[in-house]
Amino acid sequence: MEVVIRQHEQQCGVTAADIIADAVACGATTLGLATGSSPLSVYRELIRRHRKGGLTFADVQAFLLDEYVGLPPGHPQSYAHVIRAEFTDHVGIASDRVHSPDGIAEDIFGAAQAYDALITDAGPIDVQLLGIGANGHIGFNEPGDELASRTHRVKLADSTRRDNAGLFAGDISKVPREALSMGMGTILKAATVILIATGERKAQCVEQMVHGAVTPRLPASFLQLHRDVELYLDHSAASRLSPRSRP
Ligand code: F6R
Q1: Does the pTM of the predicted model rise above 0.90?
Q2: Side by side, which strands form the sheet with 98-99?
Q3: Share of the chain above pLDDT 90, in %
């Protein structure tokens, strides 16, 4: 894992945006995208460069990591809606090139399989952007006894629902209990993985991800098995890393 430490969140975003912009300029056509607060600085920077001119996403298809089960795509907190509002609509990626698991399908199992098939057909994903949950989740692969490899239905951890309640007017009862998420196998197939983590709350899971054992108890630890993972951390998130792993 390559560790890049910056003073501020915004600088992490700019540095990570360099990698994505270079990849797109060199012909990358498939991006795996995360929602949540961590990638926002990356999206802001990519939007800025697109508006300034020179960075086009015309050939890009985007694949979301996950989607809540039961929220219609127009719901303000559905990830299909969020990614358009925060990124893809602003850089000219047409909505039919932005893909997400279908969280309102009657056949959720079939929807998960169909999403994997779509990624396999278009993929492998060139650059996968990730955040990390404070409990070590990646996508919505929550800690447990085992991990699914492919897109699957997940029960969200109570801590994850609490963390996300702020976006649902602080009411945890409004946060869906389930989601569809790419599996770790799907995520690990991406050519390059970029993870952004900022703030003190992420320090412990970042330490375990980098220094701990590879275990389904901390899904992020599986990133140790990938040969091109870049971690963009601010000083707080990196505060528990051993000096040896710091650049
Ligand atoms: C979002 C996702 C999650 C988030 C994680 C961190 O699509 O898959 O794994 O990346 O929950 O969320 P933030 O960035 O809001 O701390």
Answers
A1: yes
A2: 2-6, 229-234, 192-197, 127-130, 30-33, 61-64, 98-99
A3: 94
Catalytic one among 66, 102, 116, 234?
66
pLDDT in tens, 123-179: 899 999 999 999 999 999 999 988 889 999 999 999 999 999 999 999 999 999 999
Q: Is residue 90 flagged as an active site residue?
A: no
- Ligand 1 centre to CA of 34 (Å) is 7
Q: For domain 2-245, give the fold.
A: Rossmann fold (3.40.50)
Q: Is residue 81 among the annotated active site residues?
A: no
**CA 69 to CA 108: how far, in whole Å?**
8
Domain ranges (residues) in the chain = 2-245
